[in-house]
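Researcher: Sequence recovery benchmark, item below. Answer with residues only.
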């Protein structure tokens, strides 16, 4: 008899304020594309994925939690910023709409690498593609009209052209269970651990989801996203879920 398994992934949750701002961007894009052309991710499914585990034996949930607890104790809270919106694989063949991130992306990538290595020690395949931080917002439905590409490109350019960004504070590491339903995936937390490490930089006094002036922030330059509107490659941003 096979061991019971759950569909699991490791991610960083988003504050309600950040989700509201992402929903505002979605509403703007929806006005350009109309209803029914994009399957939008619900608020409950918005997160920043670090590692998709897939079918996970129940016996591995406890050791996964132990490793994540250790990593959370070593990792410092992060302050990210919502970056430009992008399309995968490119603007001519859009399939996925996502939001990029700036700010402490170096520390974020280091945390993703640490999670990947820890899970590899438990038998999960290591990632072959480099980590490209992003938040999936929606997926273009099959059979969408050809002009959807131009509509999306114009809408995303307008949203990205705004001069204010949104702070994305990150202070928890979560192991999620994902259950597939006819109306979409439903996620619940199997475990949650606070990031308790000491930051190497000065602490940020930032409330979740507040507006900040991009020109005055200390955000790192936007990393190159494989799925960016202007990108030439057709590789999907990692991770996938």
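Model:
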């Amino acid at each position: 008899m096979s061991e019971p398994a759950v569909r699991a992934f490791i991610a960083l949750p988003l504050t309600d304020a950040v989700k509201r701002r992402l929903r505002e961007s979605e509403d703007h894009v929806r006005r350009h594309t109309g209803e029914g052309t994009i399957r939008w991710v619900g608020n409950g499914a918005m997160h920043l994925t670090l590692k998709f585990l897939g079918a996970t034996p129940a016996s591995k949930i406890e050791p996964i939690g132990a490793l994540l607890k250790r990593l959370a104790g070593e990792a410092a809270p992060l302050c990210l910023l919502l970056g430009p919106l992008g399309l995968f694989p490119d603007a001519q063949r859009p399939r996925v709409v996502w939001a990029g991130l700036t700010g402490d992306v170096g520390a974020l990538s280091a945390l993703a690498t640490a999670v990947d290595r820890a899970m590899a020690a438990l038998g999960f395949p290591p990632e072959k593609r480099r980590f490209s931080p992003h938040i999936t917002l929606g997926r273009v439905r099959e059979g969408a009209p050809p002009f959807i590409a131009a509509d999306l490109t114009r809408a995303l350019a307008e949203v990205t052209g705004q001069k204010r960004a949104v702070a994305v504070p990150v202070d928890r590491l979560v192991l999620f269970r994902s259950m597939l339903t006819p109306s979409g995936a439903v996620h619940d937390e199997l475990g949650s651990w606070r990031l308790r490490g000491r930051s190497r930089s000065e602490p940020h006094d930032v409330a979740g989801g507040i507006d900040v002036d991009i020109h005055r922030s200390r955000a790192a330059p936007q990393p190159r996203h494989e799925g960016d509107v202007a990108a030439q490659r057709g590789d999907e941003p990692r991770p996938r879920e």
